[in-house]
Design goal:
Elements lengths: L1 E5 L14 H20 L6 E4 L11 H13 L2 E3 L14 H6 L6 E2 L9 E5 L2 E6 L5 H15 L6 E10 L11 E2 L1 H7 L5 E6 L4 E3 L4 E3 L14 E7 L2 E8 L1 H4 E5 L13 E5 L1 E2 L4 H14 L5 E4 L2 E2 L16 H9 L4 H11 L1
Parallel strand pairs: 1-2, 2-3, 3-4, 6-7, 7-8, 7-9, 9-11, 14-15, 15-17, 16-18
Antiparallel strand pairs: 1-12, 5-6, 10-11, 12-13
Length: 345
């Protein structure tokens, strides 16, 4: 028997930045394929647990809800994440709708109430706190989790949460944050604390606090190796489900003349060129889109070295300067200019 943990698949994601209409659909498909591989990893006697954000948004079209329903059917326990939850008691989100058909599988907090649930799997107690409405309710839910853990004598105890860890940013009223001090207290009652929500994986407190990371990049901000956690015979280990080495590439503008295609899914272009070279860079980027079958998103960070700076009394150069420059350079090629506008709007 093994417990397999994954988190934040964000199915139905729709990222318009650095994508094309076709690549947005391919991104959704790639995310679904990765989830399918995770589900297919299960062997007889195993259990699958999702730590939240099954959906990218709480309201979804029927096709995405059907995909989510299939995942719920094949997963033993799913926490509601902040993307799954509706901040309005009068509305019903996609995960809550599915929960009506699978009430034993989805852990969803009642509106404006603390919530903690316990499930046991062959000698392992999984204590789960889904996304709740406020930080105060989160703290109350954690206290309930500790009380419940004390009753699970003789069992390995896993605490599953969906929250930030030690966030350096100012939090909104509905943001949930787990402090190092609170973790230290929780580890007195639990063998491991596993977190969903943050997309970059980290392991802290001697490997007992697991920030699992999402299953597949949704954009350039969360590029990293993606993994699942497996508790097998009381030993926790990880398996990679998306490779940064294979899926992500960085290139420089000097590389573009020889770079006719790439197998990467996410590509970042760096470098600095003169203004009269920018049209060539744009054409090379367009060629990559056309010739790279795996490409999901491409981000250009190429700067123009000889754009004249405005005088100080005229204020800072506006953000529109570079796109306007590129459009002027492409005036002689209406097809390329149209494609550029599509990529940047």
């Amino acid at each position: 028997m093994a417990l397999i943990f994954y988190t934040d698949p964000h199915i139905g994601v729709n990222r318009t930045g650095n994508t094309t209409p076709a690549s947005r659909e391919k991104l959704k498909e790639s995310i679904n394929n990765t989830v399918g591989k995770i589900l297919g990893r299960r062997q007889e006697g195993d259990y699958l647990i999702c730590l939240g954000d099954l959906f990218d948004t709480y309201s979804n079209p029927e096709s995405v809800i059907r995909q989510g329903s299939t995942i719920v059917e094949m997963t033993d326990l799913i926490l509601a994440g902040n993307h799954d939850v509706v901040a309005d008691a009068d509305k019903v989100g996609s995960l809550e709708l599915i929960m009506g058909h699978h009430p034993s599988k989805v852990i969803y907090a009642p509106f404006n109430e603390p919530h903690c649930d316990v499930r046991t799997f062959d000698g392992v107690a999984v204590v789960a706190v889904p996304h709740v409405t406020t930080q105060d309710l989160f703290e109350e839910s954690l206290s309930i989790a500790i009380e419940k853990a004390e009753l699970m004598t003789g069992m390995q105890r896993m605490l599953c949460l969906h929250c930030n860890y030690d966030s350096p940013h100012e939090l909104t009223e509905t943001s949930l944050n787990l402090t190092p001090e609170r973790v230290q207290q929780l580890l007195g009652s639990f063998n491991y604390v596993l977190l969903g929500h943050e997309h970059q994986p980290r392991d802290l407190f001697g490997g007992r606090l697991i920030i699992l990371g999402n299953t597949h990049p949704t954009g350039f901000s969360d590029i990293s190796p993606k993994r699942i956690a497996i508790l097998d015979d009381k030993v926790l280990h990880f398996e990679e489900v998306w490779s940064e080495h294979e899926g992500y590439g960085e290139f420089y503008s000097d590389d573009l003349p020889a770079l006719h295609a790439t197998l990467n899914q996410f590509v970042r272009i760096k470098g600095s060129v003169s203004s009269d070279q920018m049209a060539g860079v744009s054409k090379a980027i367009s060629t990559l889109w056309k010739t790279s079958p795996n490409l999901l998103a491409m981000k250009s960070e190429v700067t123009v070295s000889d754009v004249p700076q405005q005088e100080a009394d005229q204020g800072e150069m506006t953000a529109e300067t570079l796109p306007a420059l590129i459009e002027r350079e492409l005036e002689s090629d209406p097809a390329m200019q149209s494609m550029w506008k599509e990529f940047t709007t």
